[in-house]
Design brief:
This protein has 11 helices and 15 strands. The protein has helices spanning 33-41, 79-94, 141-154, 171-175, 215-227, 247-255, 269-284, 315-322, 335-343, 347-350, 355-376, and strands at 8-11, 58-64, 67-74, 101-108, 126-133, 159-163, 183-184, 187-188, 191-193, 196-200, 234-240, 260-265, 289-300, 307-308, 326-333. The chain is α/β, with parallel strands linked by helices. It is globular and about 75 Å long. Strands 5, 6, 9, 10, 11, 12, 13, 14 and 15 form a 9-stranded mixed sheet that branches. Strands 1-2-3-4 form a 4-stranded mixed sheet, with helices on one face. The protein starts with 7 loop residues before the first strand and ends in a 13-residue tail after the last helix. Bound molecules: adenosine-5'-triphosphate (ATP) and magnesium ion. Adenosine-5'-triphosphate (ATP) binds at residues 134, 137-143, 165, 168, 170, 243, 295-296, 331, 333-334, 337-338, 341.
């Protein structure tokens, strides 16, 4: 029997001494496969709000007498989403008369978001690419990229981090890895730290020798990193972009297939104005902006415990609202973030329960949820680019 969500349905309900029951025929008060299928299909997947049927997430259902066994796929690796989905699924099945025992299996199956420029070549095995960018330098892009990558990996996803800042690579220091990568079949094997596959120009070149390359050459190098690295299967590849919105950045965002961008800013006006330039750059190349992260959004005094908005208040929220994007998180100034960055232990690994650790986890959740929604939305039409660099 073909299930509405494309699942295999096995209705094996039988009663002793009788012939096999038809799937839709209740026996001795046992539920029918159709009843189970309908109830399951109507449960809403919490990340996207779509029903399991709409998102085709019921992988397998078996009904044997009063016993129901089902396998359900999840679009994010997030624990709280899984718990909610399990609660809702059990409640839906418990409401069917005759269901005595429920055996559920949940499988994370993150899908390719399919958004972004359809003409950029996708990276083999990589489902989603997330660009972390800003207009201004020094606002915390690399810190956000590193913590986002590690938080997604901690949630159970397969994650890579590509440091595309060839002028000032940060990943080696911030992730605490700095070996020369090995090659296999003419491809670079990325290094690994905190559960994340990492690639940076810093592994290959002396970071003190700043590259003075023009945009197209940088893009060529990055494209090589995308395609000539053994990324394997990745749910998310986080890209740490160099600061600014100049030619280098524009070339990069045109060449790389980006599923969504995260714009990092600090709360002061001068940074916010540059963040808007970053937003517009992604608009120009028809790449969805997932939202804004306000970093260094105040300092909690360790002595009095009071929050001091050193760089102003509410700037990230205002800018997000004005540009109709989500405020993905606010990360206060925390000295441990700086020391963790300098010693190769991202805050989400060093102190996941801290306020800032939680802020990065919240960011990872919102990114995973938005990409999940994109993954079940209709694919975009091909983009025709009129501007070249
Ligand atoms: N919330 C924070 N609290 C304390 N220190 C922070 C915070 N965010 C970032 N930093 C520190 O600020 C410095 C700049 O951060 P980072 O290197 O991430 O910025 P960036 O935007 O990537 O810079 P660039 O434009 O040079 O690439 C680093 O030393 C980092 O550890
Ligand atoms: Mg940086």
């Amino acid at each position: 029997m073909a299930a509405p969500g494309g699942a295999r349905v096995a209705a094996t309900s039988r009663t002793k001494g009788t012939s096999p029951a038809m799937p839709d025929t209740p026996q001795n008060g046992a539920p029918t496969a159709a009843q189970v299928q309908e109830a399951l299909g109507a449960v809403r997947e919490p990340a996207t709000g779509k029903t399991l049927d709409e998102a085709k997430l019921v992988a397998d259902v078996e009904v044997t007498g009063g016993n129901v066994r089902a396998t359900i796929e999840m679009l994010t690796p997030l624990q709280q989403m899984r718990q909610q989905l399990e609660r809702d699924t059990r409640a839906a099945l418990a409401a069917i008369p005759g269901v005595a025992h429920v055996d559920l299996e949940f499988r994370t199956k993150i899908r390719a978001s399919g958004a972004g420029r359809s003409d950029a070549q996708p990276i083999k095995g990589v489902k989603n690419t997330i660009a972390v960018a800003s207009g201004k330098g020094g606002v915390g892009k690399s810190t956000v990229a590193v913590n986002l990558a590690v938080a997604l990996a901690q949630a159970g996803a397969k994650v890579g981090l590509l440091d595309t800042d060839v002028y000032g690579p940060s990943a080696p220091l911030m992730m605490g890895v700095n070996d020369r990568p090995l090659m296999r079949d003419n491809k670079i094997i990325p290094l690994e730290a905190h559960g994340v596959k990492v690639m940076s120009i810093g592994f290959i070149m002396d970071p003190d020798k700043a590259l003075i390359w023009r945009g197209p050459l940088v893009a060529q190098l990055i494209t090589q990193f995308l395609n000539d690295v053994h990324w394997g299967e990745l749910d998310y590849l986080v890209l740490d972009l160099p600061p600014g919105t100049g030619d280098v950045q524009l070339t990069l965002v045109q060449k790389i297939p980006i599923s969504g961008a995260v714009i990092v800013t600090t709360p002061q006006e001068v940074a916010l104005a540059d963040a808007v330039k970053g937003l517009k750059m992604f608009d120009e190349v028809k790449t969805p902006v997932l939202g804004i992260v306000e970093n260094m959004s105040g300092f909690v005094c360790p002595g009095c415990g009071e929050m001091h908005p050193i760089f102003g208040e509410g700037g990230g929220k205002r800018t997000a609202e004005a540009n109709k994007v989500e405020l993905l998180g606010q990360v206060p100034i925390e000295p441990a973030i700086m020391t963790g960055g300098d010693t190769g232990t991202p805050q989400v690994a060093a102190a996941p329960e801290s306020e800032t650790g939680q802020a990065f986890h919240h960011l990872a959740e919102r990114v995973a949820v938005q990409l999940a929604s994109q993954s079940i939305a209709k694919p975009r039409k091909p983009t025709i680019m009129l501007r070249s660099v």
